[in-house]
Hints:
Elements: E1 2-7, H1 15-29, E2 33-38, H2 39-42, H3 50-54, H4 63-74, E3 77-81, H5 91-100, E4 121-129, H6 133-138, H7 141-156, E5 159-168, H8 174-189
Parallel strand pairs: 1-2, 1-3, 3-4, 4-5
The structure holds flavin mononucleotide (FMN).
Amino acid sequence: MHVLTILDHPDPNSFTAAVARSFNMGAESVGHTTELADLHAEGFDPRWTMADVEGEGPDRLPADVRLEQERIDRADAIGFVFPLFWWGMPAMTKGWVDRVWSWGWAYDQLDDPEKSLQRPRTGVLLVPAGARSDEMGELGYRAAIETAWISGTFGYFGFAHRELVLLNGSKGSKTRREALLRRAHEVGASLKAPI
Ligand SMILES: Cc1cc2nc3c(=O)[nH]c(=O)nc-3n(C[C@H](O)[C@H](O)[C@H](O)COP(=O)(O)O)c2cc1C
């Protein structure tokens, strides 16, 4: 498969960037090809502006959005790697999703998250989070995120299989971080083909 990894972190030496590299290495270790979209390094503009409003429809899309969609066209699987910010996506990832997965290209029915216009793809979210997993489970954050992202957003985009991998304790010890990087590698090496 061809795997597109979307990285959202401004620091190439961050843990989040290391997760993206580990995930890609895992994917390559079993023969997949990989492509990294490093949104900060590439200067992607996440703001949804009048150009997006006026660009609705395939022939009038802003050029930067069209380029992102061409990367998606090439991909069989997509890995999102971003840190959990305020129990949600950081602004860069949020804006990329808002702008790139556009109405008329990704989906056309807001009442049916399983009716995407896109071919089936595998989608994996690798999300470093400072909080512990028991804390997130007890307070309902994990269920809230899973519903919004996995049942909601990524259904409209045709992701089948789709999986949320929370990398809890990302600010923890070196040992903890190394274990999380191994987990990211395993996820890359065990990607399922889209249904
Ligand atoms: C603005 C901001 C908001 C954050 N919000 C959360 C949060 O809601 N839940 C959480 O578990 N961690 C939160 N964190 C911690 C980050 O998820 C953590 O710093 C990140 O996973 C570490 O990755 P890095 O070392 O690559 O930056 C937040 C961090 C920042 C800077």
